[in-house]
Write a structure and sequence with these properties.
By secondary structure, the chain is of the alpha/beta class. It contains 15 helices and ten strands. An eight-stranded parallel β-sheet has the order 3-4-5-6-7-8-9-10. Bound molecules: adenosine-2'-5'-diphosphate (A2P).
Length: 326
């Protein structure tokens, strides 16, 4: 079964969770239900994925069928960039709760350290925006809000019992160090892009030293981005020869090797799959162990290749907050 890492609140976060980004409309609910049936107990969601309502249907179906109880599952969601002003944080969280059909979220993250101009909920949320992102956020206008303001509102969500733990996503060391200096309730998690081509050794160590659990997204590198033209499929770590050979030795797929490597590095991962066999495969990484040499060989593949570096937020909003090297 899947081990967990313990967060500041004492809550346990299963190491492998199901990612729901780009889990398309119409299939998400059944994927979530299947995943819960297959033993997943950790779901990674976000307002921005435009499918929380369907994720909620999947959770409800599984609970109604007696597959699991609410308290057995760990659900993460994320505050979107257009809701950083203090008066928008709680309504955004409440909207997510309503969509997911839950009365609390286990972990709520600031999705990006980027504040964009407010967009009314009815525009931001499906059905409109998923088909037309421009309609949801016409100019991607930056509207600076101090992170301290947003964080204080996040802390109030914990006080109010809406969320158990709070954290951040796409934060570098500098931003995290600053946040840690004043946070009344410290961030429990930092979710960032991590795979063998982007190992972020320093950031991972910094988080560990500061009691911040790391979650790695895009654990296979490139694949999700290939589907939207941001990367080439050949760039996927799943095509890497070194990883392939290590997998053969253990009778595991390249995907399983990548996930196992992440788990042994001591963080949580959220691979996405809409395919039941691959879903099961991705959870089945706890019956083998990579040797020290294998771990090092995989980490040695690092090329500081970040796939999630889109034109979507413009250079202004996105490129500047990441360190070039870690
Ligand atoms: P699919 O949904 O058809 O399984 P990431 O989480 O790194 O962004 O990767 C998600 C992508 O990887 C999706 O395109 C998904 O496709 C694919 N994928 C997920 N699990 C596996 C696996 N075990 N083997 C190969 N591809 C996988």
């Amino acid at each position: 079964s899947c081990p967990s890492l313990v967060l500041r609140s004492g809550a346990k976060m299963p190491q492998v969770g199901l990612g729901t980004w780009k889990a398309g409309p119409g299939v998400v609910a059944s994927v979530v239900e299947e995943a819960l049936r297959a033993g997943y107990r950790h779901l990674d969601c976000a307002c921005d994925y435009g499918n929380e309502h369907e994720v909620g249907q999947g959770i409800k179906a599984a609970i109604d069928a007696g597959v699991c109880k609410r308290e057995d599952i760990f659900v993460t969601s994320k505050l979107w960039n257009t809701y950083h002003h203090k008066e928008h944080v709680r309504p955004a969280c409440e909207r997510t709760l309503k969509d997911l059909g839950l009365d609390y979220i286990d972990l709520y993250l600031i999705h990006f350290p980027i504040s964009l101009k407010f967009v009314p909920f009815e525009k931001r949320y499906p059905p409109e925006w998923i088909h037309d992102p421009e309609a949801a956020n016409p100019k991607m206008e930056v509207d600076p809000v101090p992170l301290s303001e947003t964080w204080a509102a996040m802390e109030e969500l914990v006080d109010a019992g809406l969320v158990k733990d709070i954290g951040v996503s796409n934060f570098n060391c500098q931003l995290l160090a600053d946040l840690l200096s004043y946070a009344r309730i410290k961030p429990s998690v930092n979710q960032v892009e991590l795979h063998p081509y982007l190992t972020q050794e320093f950031l991972v160590r910094f988080c560990k030293e500061n009691g911040v659990v790391v979650t790695g997204y895009s654990p296979f590198g490139a694949l999700s981005y290939a589907s939207i033209g941001m990367a080439k499929e050949e760039e996927s770590v799943l095509n890497n020869e070194v990883i392939g050979k290590i997998g053969e030795k253990h009778g595991k797929s390249p995907a399983q090797v990548s996930l196992r490597w992440a788990c042994q590095r001591g963080y949580t991962v959220v691979p996405k799959s809409a395919n039941i066999d691959r879903l099961k495969q991705n959870l089945n990484v706890f019956d083998f162990e990579l040797s020290q040499e294998e771990m090092e060989a995989i980490s040695g593949l690092n090329r500081n290749r970040r796939y999630n570096d889109p034109g979507v937020f413009t250079e202004l909003a996105f490129n500047t907050f990441y360190p070039i090297h870690n």
